[in-house]
Amino acid sequence: MEANAQETKVVNRWLVVGGSLLMQLSLGAIYTWSLFNRPLVEAYGWTPGDTVFTFSITLACFSLAVIIAGRIQDRIGPRKVAVIGGVLTGLGVGLASFATNIYFLYLTYGVIAGIGIGAAYVTPLATCVKWFPEKRGLITGLILAALGVGGMVFKPVILIFIENFGVSQSFLYLGCIYGVLIVTGAMALSVPPAGYRPPGWTPPVVKGGAAPAGSRRFSTAQAMRTPQFYMLVVWMFFGSAAALMIISVAANIGMSMLGLSLAAAGNAVVTIALFNACGRLGWGWISDKYGRKPSILANFVLLSLAMFYMALIPMTYAGFLVATCVVGFCFGGLAAMLPTLTAEWFGLANVGNNYGAIFLFYGVAALTAPRLSIAIGFENAFLVAGIACSVGVLVAIFARAPGRIPGGTPQEGLTPRVSGASS
Q: Which positions, given as ranges, span the membrane (predicted)?
């Protein structure tokens, strides 16, 4: 409590946003991993499957750290957690420069940096929405979009470092850059005082002056007893797995299937990053306007079409970039829509724990999908991903919100319809 009290001074809230955006841009560089695969194979003779598994470990540790750090920040404040995350991220990436065997790379870039990225990632969003209760949608979209843009910003930097200093030395420089930027941004994080309201803003009042008695309050155990929980798991696992099959080896796909140079193939990293950011903003608006169910359905239809195109139709360079745009856009959409659906289906009371249980399957997808794409070949991997996304389409067709808490009364757990909510 004392730690939080020290962070309750009213500051210019846009400085908090600025620091958060700086952090997220740096953290978004995690999705540039495919730029390192070929140089690492050439430098150390490791197999492509071994090198891409580093990215899997990073994302798996990231997903676990998000859940744990989210709870810790409520106790000691977001700034301390973010600083620790920045230090671990910079340390992990920097120490990777000394990796001469694959297991040390797994430990440094995979485990240490992955934990740091997860710890730092969770703090900006949770902090900014407290400062902007009247603009939560806008602020959430900005913070999520910044993460997607990070890969686009750092792609040319990474290529310059690799070309001029080699892949190992690049890790050292990048670790220093990431660490400094994240810690600098973290210093701007602070929580508003208890009861804070922006000047001129009055909280919306539910008719009668109180929250409706039927608000959803599913515990994680209760949510797991509903089919809707497993619908969300299917969307998280299959959607993330399909996207990560591309993101983790995007540059490799361009080089091996189209004969491109690393720089030309690396443009896929830019398109994925840009459209990942657009998806995080765009799908939130689309799902608000047209509903969560139609939006999830459209997302998986587009994702499955992109996968089947890459698996079954000879690709051109333009087609490859368009497909990566679709993948990035849909991947960003899942990041925007699945937390919202979790809150609408199971309530806000336990949304952190409920979404955390679903988000674990992002880590499972990260551990399995990238290496699978190397093991069975790109075309076969795309075909498998297309079939998996088709399953996501079928689930979306039959999806509907839960009507009651398992074991409760028929009315328990009901909530008023939220704009755009699926039914």
A: 12-31, 51-69, 81-100, 106-126, 138-159, 171-191, 229-251, 257-275, 296-314, 320-343, 355-374, 380-399
